[in-house]
Design goal:
With about 725 residues, the chain is α/β, with parallel strands linked by helices. Helix content is about 40%, strand content about 20%. Strand 20, helix 20 and strand 21 form a beta-alpha-beta unit.
Length: about 725
């Protein structure tokens, strides 16, 4: 993050390499490490004390691990095989231990000679390899190893410390080779320019950056590691928060048209039509949005809320307020199905208020147009004309809204639904269509813990809807262990039939479509738990089996992303109208689909979905007055992490709680990858859930620093760190938001 010239030196260059060319190449290709600074910021994953074996029960299957242990015994076996039919095949089995756990190593063929001579009982070494299961025992096949004898000068020097750092490594570059490379560049750490202002560092008792880098890579005590981690976490939190604070500061200086609704205009007429009163949360969040819209700087607000908390209604009221004030509002949806659904529900909610310019239209009515890529030419031309003349106050569409041809009369507000599905460039292109920057409201139905919101969307003000509107029903969720208890699955299909007999409808969700086009491709990378499993269940196969088997006689239809848009819309219309009993679909129904009569959902291979995605899917049922039922079908064994994940989903309907669980399991790489444009300087030391306090304090410090010195003229070290964090790509990313 603080790559000054000495630290910016490439690890590999034509004339001289800091490291050997082969090592530098592997580091660049497999670990994304290109400069001396990158390598210094490649921190140890953990530390081993000599002779301490990671508890064998904790070794992750199918992952590359490094263990430090002592050889207990070694046996050379000969055997006959196709390659060595006369019993000349050789297999060396070595058992290593730390006194509390044992692990088998195995070497074959010509690879047995060197370890047979070196790995004698009592020898200590570091072993690295991929954990596999053989005869129900954990083993490492052909591990790389490094002896820890301390008998050569280099060994003594390298392994003198009591703590051995273990680095995130790859099959092509073991942890100790990364450690040796770091020995080479560690003296350069003295040249690291400190990004933290002296007053902040001293006030919080943090060590200097060069000292932190030395202590993280070469600690003598556990206290050294704690000092270094405390300091490096602050670096990451503070520099990121400064970037976001500068963005908030710059946004506050931009001009925008203040949009204040008329006292008795379109918004009032719409509110009078509503058959219910807004929840307290909806009223509070609407007030926050209207306050922002009334200022002469662009609103940047994140509206997050539980599935079904009424975000769309809040967004629609904001859009109507802007139309009242003479502007236009655009809603950007990630899929055609969702854009069509939003358009339908907005037109229904507005009634004659959506019939501007038509006979029977109300006094304050406006026109609501839909714009998607698959529209016919005539309809598209009319929609474009309505936008450029200002005839249409509201437009709902997909990324087709962003095309150059689309011109607005006066774009005042952009609402982006499901933020995480849109690229930065797409949002930027839409915002560029206003005469002045339009106000921006970003909606997400994936609840984000407060600290993630502060880290990822720190430039947006956040509003949270955490109440469900009256009349929404509770959803009961259960895990159906199909392999352990097949009769539970049979009962699940009986429950679906019962719901249909009671006049309701059901969804069945599968991870895959199952058409030839898809089957030609790889259906996702299968690692770890998934490695030995069958392919995920497919919509087309499951629909066929259900229609001929347990749901025989019911009206079953399919919906997936590769259908023609008109066909998708027709299927959704029939389902919404109650003409279909069971809809077998992919996650295309995950967001925004609203059929109050659908009360049951069966999610097949539920372990193939993430926690947040399962929560999203479940939110499609229980949208009416009848209670909802969600059945999570899995073949994973009871003790597996996948089952624990499903149990978590079944145990709570609190999306914020689930998002914390999700984040703790996945870490924040997935969360921040998108938000930080996937650049290499994603968080390495900071864990957004564990380090809530640091993030909150860093945000306050960063806001104060930027308010006092927006250009950071008095803080050259911070400016350098910021430039490294915001390489050109990221700088544009943050500018675009």
């Amino acid at each position: 993050m603080d790559l000054v010239p000495a630290l910016q030196e490439p690890l590999q260059q034509p004339l001289k390499s800091v490291l050997g060319p082969a090592t530098a190449k592997v580091m660049a290709e497999h670990l994304g490490l290109h400069t001396v600074g990158d390598l210094l910021h490649h921190y140890p994953r953990r530390y081993e004390e000599r002779g301490q074996l990671t508890p064998v029960a904790d070794l992750p299957m199918d992952e590359h691990v490094t263990v430090v242990a002592q050889v207990a015994d070694a046996r050379l076996h000969t055997f006959a095989s196709a390659k060595a039919p006369r019993g000349k095949g050789q297999r060396l089995e070595v058992t290593i231990t730390d006194g509390s756990g044992r692990l088998q190593l195995v070497f074959f063929g010509n690879g047995v000679h060197k370890p047979h001579k070196e790995l004698l009982p009592g020898t200590r070494a570091m072993f690295a390899g991929k954990v596999s299961l053989f005869n129900r025992r954990l083993q490492l096949a052909h591990p790389a190893y490094e002896l820890l004898r301390g008998d050569g000068e280099e060994s003594v020097e390298t392994w003198a410390g009591a703590l051995i750092p273990l680095y995130p490594a790859t099959a092509k570059l073991e942890s100790w080779k990364i450690g040796k490379a770091l020995q080479t560049v560690l003296p350069t750490a003295q040249d690291a320019v400190d990004p933290l202002p002296d007053s902040l560092r001293e006030g919080r008792g943090l060590v200097s950056l060069p000292e932190a880098l030395l202590k993280i890579h070469r600690p003598h005590t556990k206290a050294d590691i704690a000092d270094a981690r405390a300091r490096l976490k602050w670096d990451e939190a503070f520099v990121l928060q400064v970037a976001l604070a500068r963005r908030r500061h710059a946004d506050a200086l931009l001009p925008a048209v203040a949009r204040t609704p008329l006292p008795d205009g379109l918004l009032t007429a719409f509110d009078d039509r509503l058959p219910f009163t807004l929840t307290e949360g909806q009223q509070r969040v609407s007030a926050e949005i209207f306050t922002d819209l009334a200022t002469e700087h662009p609103m940047h607000r994140l509206l997050q809320g539980e599935v079904g908390s009424g975000k769309t209604l809040v967004a629609l009221r904001a859009m109507l307020a802007v139309v009242d004030a003479g502007g236009q509002a655009a809603m950007l949806a990630p899929t055609e199905v969702l854009a069509q659904q939003h358009h339908r529900s907005v037109v229904e909610m507005m009634g004659e208020l959506a019939e501007g310019g038509m006979l029977g239209g109300a006094e304050h009515a406006t026109k609501v147009v839909l714009l998607t890529g698959s529209m016919g030419t005539a309809a598209r031309r009319q929609a474009l004309l309505d936008l450029v003349t200002g005839e249409a106050g509201l437009v709902i569409g997909t990324h087709a809204l962003i095309e150059d041809k689309v011109q607005f009369h006066d774009l005042g507000l952009v609402v982006v639904d499901e933020q995480h599905r849109f690229g930065v460039e797409q949002r930027d292109a839409l915002r560029g269509k206003g005469k002045q920057p339009p106000h921006l409201l970003v909606m997400t139905a994936t609840p984000i813990p407060r600290t993630v919101a502060m880290t990822v969307f720190g430039d947006l003000e956040t509003s949270v809807l955490d109440q469900l509107p009256a009349g929404r029903s509770p959803i009961a969720s259960h895990v159906v262990p199909a392999a352990d208890k097949p009769h539970f699955l049979a009962r699940a299909w009986e429950r679906v039939r019962e719901e249909v007999e009671n006049g309701h409808q059901a969804y069945v969700v599968c991870p895959r479509i199952g058409d030839e086009e898809e089957d030609g491709k790889k259906t996702g990378k299968q690692t770890g738990e998934d490695a030995d499993k069958r392919p995920p269940l497919a919509v087309l196969d499951v629909a066929d089996q259900l229609a001929r088997g347990p749901l025989n006689g019911l009206r079953v239809e399919v919906l997936h992303g590769r259908m023609h848009p008109d066909d998708k819309d027709a299927v959704m219309r029939r389902f919404a109208a109650g003409e279909t009993d069971v809809l077998v679909a992919t996650t295309v129904i995950e967001v925004g689909v609203n059929v109050p009569n659908a009360t049951a959902m069966v999610i097949m291979d539920a372990d193939r979905f993430g926690v947040s995605q399962l929560h999203q899917l479940r939110g499609r049922v229980g949208r009416g007055s009848a209670p909802g039922l969600c059945l999570l079908v899995t073949e994973m064994p009871e003790a597996s992490p996948a089952r624990q994940r499903l149990n978590s989903v079944a145990a709570t309907l609190d999306g914020f709680e689930l998002s914390r669980i999700d984040l703790e399991q996945r870490r924040e790489g997935d969360v921040l990858g998108q938000a930080q444009s996937g650049a290499r300087t994603s968080l390495r030391m900071l864990a957004v859930i564990e380090d809530e306090e640091i993030i909150a304090e860093a945000r306050a410090e960063a806001t104060a620093v930027v308010a006092a010195d927006p250009e950071l003229q008095d803080l050259p070290g911070l400016k350098t760190a910021l430039d490294a964090l915001l390489d050109e790509e990221r700088e544009q990313y943050l500018e675009k938001g």
